[in-house]
Amino acid sequence: MVIVGGGGHGLASAYYLARNFDVGRIAVVEKGWIGGGNTGRNTTIVRSNYLWDEAAHLYEKSLQLWEGLSQELNYNVMFSQRGVMNLGHTLQDMRDIVRRSSANRLNGIDSEVLTPTDIKRRVPAIDIAPSARYPILGASFQPRGGVARHDAVAWGFARAADQLGVDIIQNCEVTGIRQVDGAVTALETSRGLIRTKKVGVVAAGHSSVMAAMAGLRLPIESHPLQALVSEPLKPVLDTVIMSNAVHGYISQSDKGELVVGAGIDAYTSYGQRGSYGIIEGNIAAIVTLFPSFSRVRMLRQWGGIVDVCPDACPIIGKTPVRGLYFNCGWGTGGFKATPGSGWVFAHTLARDEPHSLNAAFSLERFYTGALIDEHGAAGVAH
Ligand SMILES: Cc1cc2nc3c(=O)[nH]c(=O)nc-3n(C[C@H](O)[C@H](O)[C@H](O)COP(=O)(O)OP(=O)(O)OC[C@H]3O[C@@H](n4cnc5c(N)ncnc54)[C@H](O)[C@@H]3O)c2cc1C
Q: 2-76+149-220+310-378, what's its fold?
């Protein structure tokens, strides 16, 4: 089997394939270097507080795998369960927060609703003044959520997969997918032809490019998504704060940098940059919540390309081409799903049928209309 894409999801898929199934030889082909895509560019927020049962179960499986991942891989992925807070600024925000929090608890997912005083106690630097332009009325809080070290996730899965015999081939770009009678026979790559009957594509922002090679169209748009970090500060923030209303989120890295992000750039692109308007709006949002951060200098900005589905949920499963499978459409929030995505995709590839956790995430939902609308839980909140 060949996995296309050496990001966290591709490497996790290869690892769980080798660990859980007897499928013969496995290769991962990566056009650049492992973890050089969105895996190494994201802001590392991990949580499972999605609204609908299907999504909640999938992300919760992933969170449970995160909780044992450093031991599993024998590699410190620096998973830090410092909690994730989603702020509410209007009465309707608070109604949505209470609804989602209740739905989470019914699914066995930890979730609390906090008052402004609770928030201030946990996050002294935040402004909860009722006179603020966007007054904070409360928040949902998932204590088991948090952050992890993104590069370590790629390296940990890669090393563990390698130890199980997986071939990881970097600087190897897939340029074509050969088929005979509607079935995959080989991949054309920048380093030669690879014959194979089974291909799992996990190429994030380039999913539609890969699909076009097989004559398929996916319901996906590729957009830039930016993030930026500040100069390092002494510890000032020990949880993750998100706000859909002001449109920004923030956490503090182990190095002391404030890690800041917002939503996607509105235009489609494969350029890993993004526009200045987003940065300006993002910083304005953060300063609204934390006026004292207005004097902090920003250090670096970058972008990745995210593959966005109409219902803000991934596509994991078979395609009309026999032997060709896609795992894509994670949009702005796939880092948290890395282990769970690999777990269910490995099952799908090995058994030629979905795992119960990804059955609802097939391509067919765009024909049947059984969409899983997670825009409320995705939004700015990655
Ligand atoms: C700025 C930013 C912030 C984010 N913040 C968060 C967050 O806080 N929490 C969260 O859960 N998610 C977040 N995300 C989303 C998350 O990063 C992605 O959903 C996730 O990393 C996707 O993982 P992946 O392994 O599929 O993708 P990638 O790491 O992008 O891996 C795909 C790989 O495929 C390779 N590839 C593409 N085409 C080919 C080809 N033709 N041949 C061979 N290889 C190919 C690429 O080079 C790439 O390495 C963020 C994303 C960005 C950009």
A: FAD/NAD(P)-binding domain (3.50.50)
